[in-house]
Amino acid sequence: MAQFTPPTAEEARRTAADGWIWGYPLLENYRTMYPQAVDPEDPRSVGGFGRFRHYAEPFTPANTDVVTPNNDTPYSWAWFDLRAEPWVVTVPAVDRYYVLPFHDLDTSYVGYIGARTTGQEAGHYLLAGPGWRGEVPGGLAGVLRADTFLVGVLGRTYLAGPDDVPALRAIQEQYKLRPLSAFLDRAAPHPPDEPAWPVWREEALGGVEFFTYLDFLLQFFPVLDTERELRDRLAALGVTGSGEFEPAALKPEIRAAVEQGIADAQARLETAKKGAGVSTNLFGTREQHGDAYLTRAVGVDKGLYGLPSEEAWYGGWLKDDQGNSPADASQRDYTVHFPAGQVPPARFFWSASLYGLPQRLFVDNPIDRYSIGDRTPGVIYDEDGGLTLYVQNQQPKDPKQAANWLPAPDGPFTIIIRVYGPDPSVLDGSWTLPALMAGAGRG
Q1: CATH for 49
Q2: What is the pLDDT of residue 63?
Q3: How high is the pLDDT of residue 443?
Q4: Is 293 among the domain residues?
Q5: Closest CA to 319 of 300, 334, 304
Q6: Which helix (H) or strand (E) holds 314?
Q7: What is the pTM of this model?
Q8: Count of domains in the chain?
Q9: pLDDT below 70 — which residues of the chain?
């Protein structure tokens, strides 16, 4: 193993800050993976690695697996351990929008199977881990090569409404996962050793224990040439990927410097989040992100596993037109008006979903409506083709306004607009969101 010169306190602080920003997506990913793939007793378990858990019913406030959930495209979760061999993903012919986006341990996307990228035909796709150089079997529609040995997928498949659930479920059940050996009907390779998975602790994100988790996860993440300098600095701090990092072994002045570095990083993240009102550039492949680790961390914080803009564009409001942040439906009512020709332009569809703060989850309301969009039954457009949404806690008395009501909690909230298959005008910024207009106070 390479020998590294121990860092000074100043160097340790800088490394801890850079390492926390870079490593934050890995820990947030593990925070989700642990209950789903590692802990069989957790109600969120998908049943281990290499198995799908599908959601066919629309999400409600009772669903808390992921923040800012959507009811446009119910989820299909799965996790893969690629240390022993690749896996084969099989999809049927699909008559609707869908996407299976595979992400590395740091949430960078490996590749996509779906309506936009690979079409709607049936096919087999190989998912291979770092360094795999085996022979690719014939008859495959594509190969996805990951940079980490642990990979996840949060698939989405279009749901037209409650009556469409049986048809959606029939499609989801045809998403198949098999180890390559099973696909080829050959003997399976010797299984890798079972890691000593650390139990997830929420406190880890804000303290030196962060690097204990990061050190464990790095054993599944071979060093990339583009990240060697940072990985070397982390190794000098003791975060080598051995899974043996021990905060108690740090000298007091170095531990204090690491704690300061973590605080520095958290402050940088909070500052960066304030300027991120839309999803452009927040999510994507490793090539798309490059070394913009802070941008990736912002995306993870604002919407873990968000899709890249070319797949689905996300927007929202950091404040209303009067500068109030966040918007608060206990204080006033709101409207969103899309002028004629400015309704979100989408190849597939669009929706606006509302979440209570700070949880960023759906909130109970009397009509069980958590989002509104171009597929919502009964929505009334203006005579000129424009559209006005009414965002408030109490149902409007006017029937037209009630038809376009997006219920809000009696308190702070946020709205996320999703545009699936966005028009180029969305991606280049020539189409923009209208303001969230605050009405008179409710007091």
Answers
A1: 2.60.40.1610
A2: 83
A3: 53
A4: no
A5: 334
A6: strand 312-316
A7: 0.88
A8: 2
A9: 1-2, 277, 441-443
| Tokens (6 digits) for 202 | 């929420």
Q: Which residue has the tokens 């980490």?
A: 148
Beta-carbon contacts of 377 under 8 Å, excluding residues fewer than 6 positions away, are 161
Residue whose pair of structure tokens reads 């942040």 in the numeric block: 325
Per the listing, tokens 């899309």 go with 338
Q: What is the CA radius of gyration of the chain?
A: 23
- Examine residue 27 and state whether it is found in any structural domain, yes or no: no
Q: Pairing between strand 332-338 and 387-392?
A: antiparallel
Q: Would you say residue 383 lies in a domain?
A: yes
Per-residue buried b or exposed e for 286-325, using 16+ beta carbons within 10 Å of the residue's own CB:
bebbeeebbbbbbbbbbbbbbbbbbbbbbbbbeebeeeee
Give the tens place of pLDDT for each residue, 148-166: 999 999 999 999 888 899 9
Tokens of 239: 């975060």
DSSP 8-state class, residue 205: G
- pLDDT tens digits along 355-405: 999 999 999 999 999 999 998 999 999 999 999 999 999 999 999 999 999
Q: Is 56 helix (H, G, I), strand (E, B) or coil?
A: coil
Across the beta sheet with 87-91, what order do the strands follow? 142-145, 123-128, 87-91, 176-179
In this prediction, residue 1 carries a pLDDT of 53
Token digits for 182? 């099973």
CATH number at residue 323: 2.60.120.600
